[in-house]
Request: fold
Amino acid sequence: MLECERVSVAFGGLLAVDDVSFAVAEGEIVGLIGPNGAGKTTLFNVITGFLRATAGRVRFRGNPIGGERPDRITARGIARTFQNIRLFRGMSALENVVIGRHLRTRATLLEAVLAAPAHRTEEARVRTRARELLDLVGLGPRAHEPAGALPYGDQRRLEIARALATEPRLLLLDEPAAGMNNEEKEDMARFILDVNEERGTSILMIEHDLGVVMDLSHRIYVLNFGRKIAEGLPEEVRGNREVQLAYVGGEAVA
Reply:
């Protein structure tokens, strides 16, 4: 479904991503892990059009997407969340999801201005679907609360609901369990698994909680200082000495 081939990203003389290749197959949950500054979010930004790769290719479902605008990439079927939550904080939870859904609407600007019947019918469908997604993430009762007033974990869920509103084939999650307690992490892990298994959505996930990523991922890629240092099944990556050194250092491994 997604192929990154020898992708590099340079900022001046600094190589933030250095010749990285990896792939995500249909129906997979793939983990992308590594210490802070390893280049994980930079790769996400390349895949979703927020950055242009210095070298290499990115293909989605066989089609090149490198250099396309973020909205066009989203329209192709890739959605994402952000490491630092990016919601419309003054708008309600429902309105945030409705905004995500508008990518799939067909009413014209003129129909919207004139409040034409076709626009009103479509808008009602959009709000119904948005409520269904809020129910899916457990936020139905809080639909009309300002997004900025929601607890941190609920804001994470709301951002995922907004991403799902675009009907993605591939969902990129940037640290979905960050800042959560153990119970919230367990709930988030179950939810991610449900999205993958019940909706058939492929998932590429950055996550620093190794317990979460090891439990959920079918395969894992590991970055360090912008380079891929390991890939494989969770148990293979867990036992990889170079991965252990990258995370905790030689003395701790010894």
